[in-house]
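We modelled each protein-ligand pair independently. The example shown here corresponds to the fe (ii) ion entry; the chain sequence is given first, followed by the ligand as SMILES.
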Amino acid sequence: MNERTYILVVDDEQAILDSFSKTFAQEGYQVIQAKNWGEAHLHIKRQQFNIIIADVKLSDIEFSQMIENIKEENKYAYIIISAGFSDIDAAMKSLRHGAHDYLSKPFDPADIVTTMRKIVDKQRLQVDNLQLFDTIKVLALALDARDHYTHGHSQQVTEYAVDIAREMELSFKEVDIIRDAGILHDIGKIGIADVILLKPGRLTDEEYTEIKKHPVIGKKILEPVHCLADKIPLIYHHHERIDGGGYPDGLEGDNIPLGARILAVADAYQAMTSDRPYRKALPALIAIEELKRFKSRQFDPNIVDVFLRVLRRVGMDKPANNSNDV
Ligand SMILES: [Fe+2]
């Protein structure tokens, strides 16, 4: 298996590159060296690596930008930031920017081999999970696309929710969870009959009761997928209301997971500002008024305020905009 494990090592010290290469080659890993980010970038554009070990202080790139570039080109790579003793704080900070691990230099070859064996196993499992997750996302987007009225709904909800999460300065990991949960939030609708889901008119009480089962169905569908465990609470609770009047559990206030409260605002705004079989889209300004009106009843007031700030910044709170531009 090891001969199929590709490791890219990026460091401006040749001695460190050679020491990594020697140690890893003995384990049978395929090691590629790069002396700077420019060289490394060419490699990651050409091939997928299992593991990328990069020095925190490369002269030609900031580590946060480097992590972003790696994720664009090598989305399944396990990113390890290495650092000398004096830069260890920066290496730890890199975890907030999406690195998976950090190593302190100088390395003990025996330690690094043990660490690397564990990481190789972890990375393989992670790739399996991510590939499975990608398949589920495709299903969720396909579900969205079957209906003219909900076309692009989950995608748009996700964009709003991520904007809110970033405005709240949530961590990289929390933003990621919200992004994934946004795409999957309505996946439970797969278990609702088409006559109800695609009904071109208002729902009866019985039909509405059926629709309300979708967060529970979503949870049941996704529960066996281990890597989705941290997204499921957001999906399950995205129809709770801050006053406890929502579903499925009638949770109140802060008992509702933060990500679910964010999705609730994004979801409601997207739904209001898009056409439905029984009504036209509301203009953005009216939808904003509705969010304000239901602050503290349906929605977390702080999250509504944050979202209004986001909309204000992009000029969405002006009368000239109508909902079709949303
Ligand atoms: Fe929903």
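The pocket of fe (ii) ion is lined by residues 185-186, 214, 238-239 (CB under 6 Å).
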